[in-house]
Specification:
Helices cover about 35% and strands about 30% of the residues. The chain is globular, with a radius of gyration of 15 Å. It is built from 4 helices and 7 strands.
């Protein structure tokens, strides 16, 4: 078991099974020691989203925070599948978190903290620290409340 898997287990979490896309893109690209992760939505199965709707309307900030963490777990699952194990991942380099927010929702950074906090918990405060952008949008694919993409350094 890798260090990341041990930390996930200690948190009572597991990686979901990667669910292939039916669209014309790759979920992960690796080039010269850097992994580029496509936007991940909070799927519970290939055709199921954990919650749908906009944050601050149909989805609470707290539920969306959990969704953001689920998105990161999906990304790690893709990394593990591609690399063989997560010990090949050195650290996150950057995240972009998109939040489908109701017009009066001003807590999109709180939502993004679900993804950021999980990376800090898994990689540690030094290696897990990463720059990020948080972007409020009107709508995301499949009516997901949150989508996360990222860039990771590999060993």
């Amino acid at each position: 078991m890798t260090a990341i898997q041990e930390r996930l287990q200690a948190l009572g979490l597991a990686l979901p099974k990667p669910t292939p896309t039916g669209f014309a893109y790759a979920p992960l690209s690796v080039h010269q020691g850097v992994a580029y992760l496509a936007g991940q939505i909070p799927k519970t199965a290939s055709n199921r989203i954990r919650a749908t709707g906009r944050v601050g309307a149909e989805v609470s900030v707290e539920a969306a925070r959990e969704d953001a963490a689920l998105c990161i777990r999906h990304g790690l699952a893709w990394l593990e599948q591609r690399l063989g194990d997560l010990d090949a991942v050195d650290r996150p380099l950057r995240l972009t978190v998109y939040v489908a927010a109701a017009p009066d929702c001003d807590r999109i950074s709180d939502v993004a903290d679900g993804a950021s906090r999980l990376l800090l918990d898994l990689f540690g405060d030094e290696k897990g620290a990463h720059p990020r952008s948080v972007i409020g949008v009107h709508r995301l694919p499949r009516a997901a409340p949150v989508m996360v993409d990222g860039v990771f350094a590999l060993f």
